[in-house]
Amino acid sequence: MDFVRKAKEVELALQRKFSFQENPYLLAGKSFRKKGEIVTINDEQVEIWYHGSGCTFNFSEGIELNYSIAPISENTIKISPWSIHKFTDTSKKYVQLSQKEVLKNYEALEKEGIMSRYMKEFDLFEIHEDWLEMVLTR
């Protein structure tokens, strides 16, 4: 949940900084730099890099957050086991999980209806926006 919360916080910070409502992925390279843009969230600087079909956010505390984006899809955030593995590996706050452990957790979350497989061949999952909205408004 912290992974998704951090991702959404960065997106909102970009929207506030540059005064737009759209998914930042759609405006990267137009309204702001695709790579090297800095936003501040709770006194922490985050360097942004939008690339290919995704993004990488590097937090000043050392956390690296990566995910794929489908900006016109109902469920915009797509994550792989590698995404969470990298997130836990670069954070001192979380228990490091192997990609295999993350995949098992994804499959459990899929059974609960929180996420679903987007591309089976790449173990890419999409987080359901309705669940996400519920969690973020708590």
Please specify the SSE layout and strand pairing.
Elements: H1 2-18, H2 24-27, E1 35-41, E2 44-51, E3 54-59, E4 64-69, E5 77-79, H3 81-89, H4 99-111, E6 115-119, E7 124-127, H5 129-136
Antiparallel strand pairs: 1-2, 2-3, 3-4, 4-5, 5-7, 6-7
Helix pairs in contact: 3-4
Give an overview in words:
This protein has helices at 2-18, 24-27, 81-89, 99-111, 129-136; strands at residues 35-41, 44-51, 54-59, 64-69, 77-79, 115-119, 124-127. It has 138 residues and is α+β, with helices and mostly antiparallel strands. Helix 3 packs across helix 4. The termini are close together. The mean pLDDT is 89.
Number of strands: 7
Strand content: 25-35%
The share of residues in helices is: 25-40%
Total number of helices: 5
**Which regions are unreliable across 5 or more consecutive residues at pLDDT < 50?**
none
pLDDT averaged over residues: 89
Order of helices and strands: HHEEEEEHHEEH
Largest sheet: 7 strands, antiparallel
Shape: globular
Structural Rg:
15 Å
**How do the strands line up in the largest sheet?**
1-2-3-4-5-7-6
